[in-house]
Design a protein that fits this description.
This protein has 31 helices and no strands. By secondary structure, it is mainly α.
Length: about 650
């Protein structure tokens, strides 16, 4: 190039060398500076490839389409570009054409890419994939097949495919001696990530969380895989463990993530970021993210629902309802779901009547049994029976008109229509609207004259309004002889809900059995034992009718007389004695012995030898007296109280 700076071959070689070294910007710079020499015919593929690797996908598409000759290399790149632009139908056609018109060693890779397109269609566009007849000999093909099954909701089959893909991956990589166990685990990370996703969809969140965390510990180089796993962990955490969720959010913000994931994946991550901001009370951040999402997808429901939820957390319910109403007016196609949310908010505020008005404004749901049931329940709660009956009437009329138009006036009643009429009749009977209920029951009976239950209801209703008519209708009831009720009486009596249960007869054994087989001895009735009477019982005296009541609760109880049993010693002025003090003086009694023996009174001592002298007396509270007291207490305890 120093000799000749415009040498085409040298410039081409330089561009290829730069591409091989990963210097895509520099390679594209060389192409752009030598546009006169390096025309689109000469270097279209290299230019489109550099733009593709620099994530300038639209520019790459233009470069490929502007090439005068579509070579096989350009067709391969064209398929890749279409896949990145999520134009899956065009991409599928491009790969089919390539597989049909080329025969080389890259056929397996093309089939893998083809299966990836089918998996993307199944996952993101909910298209039922066609059977391409691809032999699942490699783990990549098995993995893509599993992704397609996940898109169809066939989770168990998808798990089996992923297990097969894991097995094939281990086999193919273990054959290479240079591949370590860590390399195998890194390659298996994407398969394990999809397994964890299936577990999460199946409700096995603990197993899924454990597998997700194992993948994160491996620190895979694929930023797209890490972002998806982090997002899925955040969805498991929800409004719990928000600190862990905040850490995981950082993985979704890694450089280059936007080029590795589809638009729907990126959108889901942004939704979860907004919800996490709401749960962590970052109101401004939540509004900012939801507003950005709404500007990107004006017709999407989630951004406006997140904004409304944030307003509700701030106790601004009226503002939230207004926001939802504006969205419903601007996007009538999504109005039904928004109005259901508005009704829920009104119910939370206690405005049940306003909630009913909002629900009745959803025309496409007015006739649905679920909506009718909800409205009738709410109106009944508000004791607005007329409005509840009106809801029934409108729904029944809708079915009449709808079926008449479909059946050209034949007007047969559908099961839903008949069930609505029956529910309306039951509701009217319950709330005393007998005449209105009779017209509904008559219509039901006309549809099915053999329906005994409806006829019985009709007779019951007429008996309250027109007894004569009830008698006439009762003739249509089948007689008791014709009605064969197959009822097992024994089973009915022994059933769990029966109020009377027949006791099973006990098995007779031994002597009892012989007695039963004999002449049938009459069993003697056991005599009741007479109750014991108190010792002081007098049959002539009428017993006290209040004897079963505690003493305090008896009518004649006057309470204890205080101080009667208390000792009078120590009362009065200081130094005074009571009247009984002389009785307590032992020295004045004739029988009391002297405190000490006098001279010449030995006979008296011997005569009164049973008296213990003071030195030999035991002090008060000695163990012997305690034992006696305990014995006395024990004796008293035996007597009973």
């Amino acid at each position: 190039l120093q000799i000749n700076k415009d040498d085409v071959t040298a410039l081409q070689c330089k561009v290829v060398c730069l591409i091989q070294n990963g210097n895509f910007k520099e390679a594209l710079g060389v192409i752009n500076t030598h546009t006169k020499v390096l025309t689109s015919d000469v270097i279209a593929f290299e230019k489109a490839y550099c733009e593709y690797r620099l994530n300038r996908i639209e520019s790459a598409l233009k470069t490929i389409q502007s090439a005068s000759q579509q070579t096989d290399k350009l067709k391969e790149l064209y398929g890749q570009v279409l896949y990145r632009l999520e134009r899956y139908d065009d991409c599928l056609a491009a790969y089919r054409d390539l597989i049909r018109n080329s025969q080389d060693e890259y056929e397996e890779e093309r089939k893998t890419n083809l299966s990836a397109v089918v998996a993307a269609q199944s996952t993101w566009e909910k298209v039922v994939p066609e059977d391409l007849g691809l032999r699942e000999a490699t783990y990549e093909l098995c993995y893509n097949s599993a992704c397609a099954l996940i898109g169809q909701g066939k989770l168990n089959e998808a798990m089996k495919k992923l297990q097969k893909a894991e097995e094939l991956c281990r086999q193919s990589l273990s054959e290479d001696s240079d591949v370590t166990e860590e390399d195998i685990e890194a390659e298996l990370a994407i398969i394990h990530g999809q397994m964890a996703y299936i577990m999460q969809l199946q409700g096995r969140t603990e197993d899924a969380l454990q597998l997700y965390n194992q993948i994160i510990k491996l620190k895979p180089t694929d930023v797209g895989l890490l972002a998806v796993i982090a997002n899925n962990i955040i969805t498991i955490n929800k409004d719990q463990n928000v600190f862990d969720s905040k850490k995981k959010v950082k993985l979704t913000n890694a450089e280059g993530v936007e080029h590795k994931l589809s638009k729907k994946q990126l959108q889901a991550i942004e939704f979860n970021k907004a919800l996490l901001a709401m749960y962590t009370n970052q109101a401004d951040q939540c509004r900012k993210l939801s507003a950005s999402l709404q500007s990107q997808s004006p017709e999407h429901l989630l951004p406006v629902l997140i904004q409304a939820a944030q307003l509700c957390r701030e106790k601004q319910h009226a503002k939230a309802v207004g926001l939802l109403q504006d969205f419903a007016d601007q996007h009538p196609a999504n109005a039904a779901e928004i109005k259901l949310t508005m009704a829920q908010l009104k119910i939370a505020q206690g405005s049940v009547t306003k909630a009913c008005m909002i629900l009745r404004s959803i025309e496409e749901l007015q006739h649905k049994p679920g909506m009718v049931s909800a409205l009738v329940t709410m109106y009944s709660h508000e004791e607005d029976i007329d409005s509840a009956i009106e809801v029934f009437t409108q729904a029944i009329q809708w079915y009449q008109q709808h079926q008449a138009s479909q059946t050209r006036g034949a007007n047969p009643k559908s099961p839903v229509h008949l069930s609505l009429i029956r529910e309306a009749a039951n509701f009217k009977l319950k709330h005393g609207r007998k005449k209105e209920a009779i017209s509904d029951l008559e219509e039901l009976w006309k549809q099915n004259p053999k329906d005994v239950h409806t006829l019985a209801q009709l007779i019951s209703a007429y008996s309250l309004v027109d007894p004569e008519k009830a008698k006439v209708l009762s003739k249509h009831l089948p007689s008791s002889d014709t009605m064969s009720l197959k009822v097992d009486v024994d089973a009915l009596e022994n059933s769990h809900g029966a109020t009377y249960v027949r006791k099973k007869a006990a098995k007779l054994t031994g002597d009892n059995q012989q007695k039963e087989q004999g002449q049938g001895e009459v069993k003697k009735k056991k005599k009741k034992k007479k109750g014991k009477l108190p010792k002081n019982y007098d049959p002539k005296v009428t017993p006290d009718p209040e004897r079963w009541l505690p003493m305090r609760e008896r009518s004649y109880y006057r309470g204890r007389k205080k101080g009667k049993k208390k000792d009078q010693v120590g009362k009065g002025t200081q130094g005074s004695t009571t009247t009984g003090s002389s009785e307590l003086d032992a020295s004045r009694t004739a029988s009391s012995p002297p405190t000490s023996p006098r001279p010449g009174s030995g006979a008296a001592v011997s005569a009164t030898s049973n008296v213990i002298p003071p030195r030999h007396q035991k002090p008060a509270g000695a163990p012997a007296t305690k034992k006696k007291q305990q014995q006395k207490k024990k004796k008293g305890a035996k007597g009973g109280w």
